[in-house]
Write a structure and sequence with these properties.
Blueprint: H1 28-33, E1 39-44, E2 47-51, E3 54-55, E4 58-59, E5 68-74, E6 80-86, E7 98-101, H2 102-105, H3 111-129, E8 141-143, E9 148-150, E10 157-158, E11 163-172, E12 178-184, E13 195-198, H4 205-217, E14 220-232, E15 237-247, E16 259-266, H5 267-274, H6 288-297
Parallel strand pairs: 1-6, 11-15
Antiparallel strand pairs: 1-4, 2-3, 2-7, 5-6, 8-9, 9-10, 11-12, 11-13, 12-16, 14-15
């Protein structure tokens, strides 16, 4: 893939129009790569190069050809942004001041850049990890500028998978200054977050919230309120955030398998953790879990 060199790009790539209609055209990636102002956002697994702490777009000729490419969209000036996705074990494909992982850096990026990186990581992982047809095992062909694959053997068409998952901040009716959080078995000590899980087949989001909290924390919740959503490529989720109120709050108990400990935290304890004044570790600012916890702390939930 070759193209004229592009001008340098500032740390923020800015707002991007996904241009879904344009993706339906033939050879969009090749045509966009030949445009002199096109830049490439590189991801390696869930990491991306950084310059001055922000995202960086590379001129097309500077990116190796062994990437999985996709079209991410166009900026307001009409210039295109392409995705170049590499496996997580690939040696550095491009020079960079540093590499940042979405979980860590997402909360420090401008909102438009954070959203672009979430899209790039989600799409890039699918392109790298799922090249074969799940029905017949044949290697598939990429089309729609990286947003779909078709099987030349059985004819099936496949798209990046997104699974709905609920995440909930649990409070209690008798004391609004307490918040229930859990510590996952995969985490280290002192790390707590909201309760979350995938919606099961045929299950409503509301039923999923009630089931997940009961399974993980031993309490039944009511007064569910939807608070927003977030695409989250860990592994391929659409996180749907709720708050809920616990019934029989004193019965809260960890399931002992997925969740090792549950605790009611005071508003003061949460505030100290958010300000870095305690050993309590809360979710990173890039996550909707952080948004739910901070919203409760600030009285918005």
């Amino acid at each position: 893939m070759t193209a004229p060199a592009a001008a340098s790009v500032p740390p923020s790539l800015g707002p991007v129009d996904r241009s879904p209609t344009e993706r339906m055209g033939e050879d969009l990636i090749t045509r966009a790569a030949a445009e002199p102002r096109t830049v490439v956002l590189v991801v390696r697994g869930d990491a991306t190069p950084l310059v001055s702490g922000g995202l960086v777009g590379y001129p097309v000729p500077e990116v190796p050809d062994d990437a999985e490419y996709a079209f991410l969209g166009r900026r307001p000036d009409g210039s295109a942004i392409l995705l170049a996705a590499f496996p997580p074990d690939r040696e550095d494909p491009v020079p960079a001041e540093a590499w940042g992982i979405l979980r860590t850096i997402g909360g420090d990026l401008p909102p438009e850049d954070a959203g672009l990186l979430v899209t790039a990581v989600a799409l890039g992982r699918w392109l790298v990890d799922a090249p074969y047809c799940p029905a017949c095992g044949t290697r598939m062909r990429v089309h729609h500028a990286g947003w779909a694959r078709s099987c030349p053997n059985c004819g099936r068409e496949h798209f990046p998978r997104t699974d709905p998952a609920v995440i909930v901040a649990v409070t209690r009716a008798d004391d609004p200054d307490l918040l229930l959080l859990g510590s996952n078995a995969l985490w280290g000590p002192d790390r707590y977050s909201c309760f979350a899980g995938f919606a099961e087949a045929g299950e409503s989001l509301e039923d999923a919230v009630v089931r997940e909290v009961r399974e993980e924390a031993g309490v039944t919740v009511t007064d569910l309120r939807y608070r927003g959503s977030q695409g989250w490529p860990y592994p391929r989720s659409l996180m749907l955030g709720f708050t809920a109120v616990a019934i029989s709050a004193d019965l809260a108990e960890a399931d002992g398998e997925e969740i090792l400990e549950v605790r009611w935290f005071t508003r003061a304890e949460i505030g100290a953790a958010l300000e870095g004044r305690s050993d309590l570790q809360l979710p990173g600012p890039a996550s909707i879990a952080s948004r739910l916890i901070r919203g409760w702390y600030e009285g918005a939930a």
